Amino acid sequence: MAERGAAPPCIFCEIAAQRAPAHVVYETPGTVAFLDLFPYTRGHLLVVPKRHVDRLTDLKPEEYRDFFGSLSEMCRRVDRFSRHYNVALNQGENAGQVIFHLHFHVIPRPTRENPFLAQPRSRLEEAEARRVVAELARP
Q: pLDDT tens-digit profile of 16-61?
């Protein structure tokens, strides 16, 4: 992880270092995938590199295979919820990025209903998280 100086700790770095709780569904030496705490749909997860990088273009070429391999694996696994899904990267504040640690969202789309319309998102409940992790964690 990069030195962050006086900046507040990065929550995704804390999750990657296992110092913050998360519902982890997949992990490699360089990546971790976990459930979004405020999911748009059931199975909505995030794929992040363990090394802190703000932007996709900050990944080192030797990190691409692991990172995009993990992203592809998570897409295969969300097929269990729906064969339709969004893979989203919000890069930069103007694009809607809130946590400035590279992350892709994988969002199952079981219906045509648009889950991104302005509506409150409820926090993921622990029991539901355990059920979803059980479905997504198996290869």
A: 999 999 999 999 999 999 999 999 999 999 999 999 999 999 999 9
Residue 56: half-sphere exposure toward Cβ, Cα within 13 Å: 11
CA angle 65, 71, 75 (to 5 degrees): 140
Q: Catalytic: which of 23, 101, 103, 105?
A: 103
AA identity, residue 39: P
Q: Is 52 a catalytic residue?
A: no
Which CATH architecture group holds 11-137?
2-Layer Sandwich (3.30)
> What residue type is assigned to position 26 of the chain?
Y
* Residue type for position 9: P
Amino acid identity for residue 45 in this structure: L
